[in-house]
Please model this.
Amino acid sequence: MLLLIPGLGIIGGYCMLSVLGRDPTGGSASSLLIPGAVAMTGAGLVFGLAPITAWLARRMAGSAQGLPMALAMRRTEVDPGASLRVATGLVLLVFGASLTQGVLVELDQVNRATSPVQEYSMPFAQLRIHQQKETVRVAQVQAHAMTSASWRDPSGARTPRTMAVFATCQQLGRFVEKAEGCVENKVLRIRDHNFSIDSDANPGRSFPFLLSDGRKLDVTVPDSSVSVRAYQPSSFSGPSLLIPPSMIPRGTVPAEGNLVLLSDSDPETVRAVLDGIGAVAPTSPVEPVGIVIDSLAQLTVIRSLLAVGMVLGLVIGVAAFVVSVADRALERRAQVTALALLGARAGTLRGVQVLQVVLPLAVGLGGAVVAGWLAESSYLITGGGAVHWDWEGLPLLVAAALGVLLVAALASVPMVRRHIDPEHIRRD
Model:
């Protein structure tokens, strides 16, 4: 118990500071306190399980009204060490799974864009005409546009350059967080307060844009402008000109430009869009703006390994638990026989068996879920990410704990047999 109290105190303190709006920043103190508190909490759950179960059984036995509850609690009170042997592995598994979920949440925050939308940029030079048409129709893609830099003189002479976006006002509104003053079918300057004004894109200056058929599209910088606030990061952060797509001849695209697609930013949608693009244009490079594809794939593999490990651990742990319960039931056959001779019914004895199996396991797993979630939250709080409370992972741990309790309860019922073995009476 001396290990559990300071561990939960440190973890709960960090969580309380976050609730009060005083998020502690990660530092040398937190890098030592959090791992130490997690280790003390895990050890406290293991070594504190027996005394906590004994104390709780004593209190429940004193207030029990029925024979099954009173008998089960008295037996657990006098032999609390059995709970330590049969439930430790499952308790540590649930506690460790909660911590691992926190690590996955932290990795997910690092590898995903913080904006609500995700962009995908692909060079037109690597896309055929039919691939361009099919790519914009990929499932989950909400909008598309084009970006391009102005033409550079190959002779080496210094040529002022600028970036442009080829999109309608509706397309622009989908790609940016805010757009004001947009006029359809008109070239406009783009003003983004997060970026300095392009000194080369002065009103009246013309910029040529090379098209895929070899011709050049000359665009003059106008006086009128559109004010935008782009997401970060985004392909629309920084371009100086908004050019309507109607100015590009039909069947041509900017030769040095990119096709930019838009979708939601949740990981499932991102993977679905990438798979769809890969099916249409398998050889074309794709740049998901703001994220790394390799990191996204690694996160998926880690999450799959965690799920497999959790399932295998629960199966092995429950199997070991059932074996331990069966072993304890065999040790207590003489006691069960004596109770049967005294007139205890088979249903009463089975109820006793279920209660004395479920109580220590429920105490251990319940403590592991609560302590593990608090430890995970303290780790996320000190990590400095946007997510501090992992509400999505909590139902999974609760469901796993309830499933283990149900399996353990069902497995303990056949341990009490109906008939009386005279050999057990002779031994006593």
Q: What stands out?
A: The mean pLDDT is 76. The chain is about 55% helix and 15% strand. The first helix runs from residue 4 to 19.
